[in-house]
Write a structure and sequence with these properties.
With 315 residues, the chain is mainly alpha-helical. It contains 13 helices and 4 strands. The strands form 2 sheets. A two-stranded antiparallel ribbon has the order 1-2. Strands 3-4 form a two-stranded antiparallel sheet. β3 and β4 form a beta hairpin. The longest helix has 32 residues. The protein is globular.
């Protein structure tokens, strides 16, 4: 009597097939995406958002920068004429200079205040928690609200700042109506509002510095200033580089407080690049787009220079 041995059903091992079928059965097994495919699927929503809200408007701005268009009639190709217009226009050059001055004031004031606050909050004291809480509070206030508050504080006749100055017998200034004081006054608002966030970044950098370095410096009789210059500042360079780039980016993109407090005035004393772009959008989209591209190139160059310097310091 002959007997036959039957092998169990085998699943298909063809790597090109997405479904494995058991021989002799009707059941199928779906394979889950793995490896690179699973990674791309997980980041696909974020990539779509970035492409739709960042790269697409960027490409459109570059295309519009070569056209003359007021959003009503047809677009007319003019090539590099818009770039020639803004680079030769005194208003744009003045807005660029104002933005540079605003950036320098904000960068210096915010970094010094944030570093001092971070060092105070890094101490093992009960007041350190209070310092951390108070410094972050201005950051949660919307910039428009902060601008309106400070606009009232700067009010020449009834503002709180001039009233406090009058108590010591000194005449107050016309802060937002003075060509020389308006831009520093607006920069002070940015410093007050944002220094707490940058203080937290620097605080994280301070807490990563090994305590053994300070103990060794103390044994070598190095004073506080020597420790700050030889240990704190060098070890704080990565966090400082991040703060530098964030401050430069935010300062070059300043708009809300300027528009709420001065609308670029008096005259063009507080006119920034983004304010210039906003005003030009109402009359000539091509010129506004060309100014946007110039701003993008400036920020890109600053970023590349800073990254190059950082890589040299690390090497």
């Amino acid at each position: 009597m002959r007997t036959s041995t039957e092998l169990p059903p085998k699943l298909s091992t063809d790597p090109g097939r997405g479904v494995g079928r058991a021989r002799g059965t009707g059941r199928t097994r779906r394979r889950r995406p793995t490896g690179a495919l699973a990674g791309w699927l997980s980041v696909a929503p974020a990539l779509l958002i970035i492409l739709g809200f960042t790269f697409y408007p960027m490409v459109q701005s570059m295309l519009l920068s070569t056209d003359r268009w007021n959003m009503l009639g047809p677009r007319q190709f003019v090539g590099a004429e818009n770039y020639t217009t803004i680079l030769s226009a005194g208003t744009f050059r003045e807005s660029l200079l104002n933005t540079l001055v605003f950036t320098v004031i904000t960068l210096a004031g915010t970094y010094v205040l944030a570093l001092a606050t971070a060092m105070a909050a890094n101490r093992e004291l009960r007041s350190a928690r209070i310092v951390r809480t108070i410094t972050v509070l201005p950051a949660v206030i919307p910039m428009v609200v902060a601008g309106l508050i400070w606009k009232w504080l700067y009010e020449p006749d009834h503002g709180l700042i001039n009233n406090l100055i009058a108590l010591v017998g000194v005449d107050g200034a016309r802060w937002l109506f003075d060509n020389d004081l308006a831009l520093p006054a607006v920069a002070l608002v940015s410093i007050w509002k944002d220094f707490g966030i940058y203080a937290l970044i620097l605080l994280g950098g301070l807490q990563r510095i090994p305590a053994e370095l300070y103990e060794a410096a103390t044994i070598d009789r190095a004073g506080p200033w020597r420790q700050f210059r030889s240990i704190t500042l060098p070890m704080l360079r990565p966090a400082g580089a991040a703060v530098f780039l964030l401050l430069v980016f935010n300062s070059f993109k300043v708009f809300d407080q300027v528009w709420v407090m001065t609308e670029g005035g008096p005259g063009t004393a507080t006119l920034t690049v983004v304010t210039f772009i906003y005003t030009k959008l109402l009359t000539d989209v091509g010129v506004a787009s060309a100014a946007s591209v110039v701003l993008f190139v400036i920020l890109l160059l600053i970023t590349l220079i800073r990254l190059r310097l950082t890589s040299r310091e690390e090497s």
